[in-house]
Amino acid sequence: MSVIECRELSKAYLRKKVLNQISFTIEENKITGVIGRNGVGKTTLLKIMAGFTKETSGEIRVLEQRPFNNLYTSVNSIFVDDQMSFPPALQLQELLEAAQTFYPNWDMDFAQRLFKYFNFDPKHYHNTLSKGRTSTFNAIVGIAARCPITIFDEPTTGMDEAVRKDFYRALLKDYIDHPRTILISSHHLEEMEDLLEDVLLLKNGKVHLHIPISDLKEWAIGLQGQASSVLPWTEGKEVLYQNQIGLNATYVVIKNDLSEAELAQARLNGVKITPVHASDLCIYLTSDTKGGIDDVFINR
Ligand SMILES: Nc1ncnc2c1ncn2[C@@H]1O[C@H](COP(=O)(O)OP(=O)(O)OP(=O)(O)O)[C@@H](O)[C@H]1O
């Protein structure tokens, strides 16, 4: 069953179109990574889903209702980012108690265990926490709320690596016991790969790809070797990335649509064939150049 449906959804700020007639559906109880370069519109899309931001045109349905300013959406969803605001007069422990009264599925025992594990002081105030600690506290609220639609926008901002790993693991373990629909935007795709089921990749205001992460991992291949051996295999193909290695060698990333026989032949011709990491592929797919930062240094 699909729980989020977008049809021809657009969002413009003044005259600047950020989302341009995008259409997709999110199935119930899946974890989807919303990926894209800075400024592509991830936060905008997630805030439209959470009912915080109004779409400019097109249609969006979350749990079959239009989310904007919708009480049903707010009760059934949570939007977690580093800007989450809490009543400043309440201490952290009081915030957890307040959350319990608002979120019907709130698990106080679980929230307290996480709170203790991450060494929070119940008497501290939210607005005095450091950036990483703010994200960690917000993440505890986001997980323990167990909302049917759980949205994390860059949830790990400021967290150190150990805390980021703990967060992803806690989320995965809790999701296995209590499946729900989760959307996460993050710039750390490599850290989330084991968590995600689907990836929604945004580029230039459009959905560029919306596929299972397992497919994304096999979507492209890297060809490496002498340019004279590699380049014939790229003819007629869309080159996603190309980089020169040393004087004559080259590394090229293309869509993985070579047959087994072609791959075997390429190997015989001295081409090394490698998988392309999902996070690298997302960078190549959303880049405006084929050589990345190296292009800046060409023909100087
Ligand atoms: N309230 C606003 N008013 C005007 N422009 C806005 C507003 N919010 C976002 N934008 C613009 O919309 C575009 C998309 O912003 P958004 O924050 O959705 O991108 P993002 O993909 O989440 O970026 P990042 O990865 O850097 O967080 C940007 O160009 C941003 O400047």
UniProtKB/TrEMBL annotation:
<dbReference type="Pfam" id="PF00005">
    <property type="entry name" value="ABC_tran"/>
</dbReference>
<dbReference type="InterPro" id="IPR003439">
    <property type="entry name" value="ABC_transporter-like_ATP-bd"/>
</dbReference>
<keyword id="KW-0547">Nucleotide-binding</keyword>
<feature type="domain" description="ABC transporter">
    <location>
        <begin position="4"/>
        <end position="229"/>
    </location>
</feature>
<keyword id="KW-0067">ATP-binding</keyword>
<dbReference type="GO" id="GO:0005524">
    <property type="term" value="F:ATP binding"/>
</dbReference>
<dbReference type="InterPro" id="IPR003593">
    <property type="entry name" value="AAA+_ATPase"/>
</dbReference>
<dbReference type="GO" id="GO:0016887">
    <property type="term" value="F:ATP hydrolysis activity"/>
</dbReference>
<protein>
    <submittedName>
        <fullName>ABC transporter ATP-binding protein</fullName>
    </submittedName>
</protein>
<dbReference type="InterPro" id="IPR027417">
    <property type="entry name" value="P-loop_NTPase"/>
</dbReference>
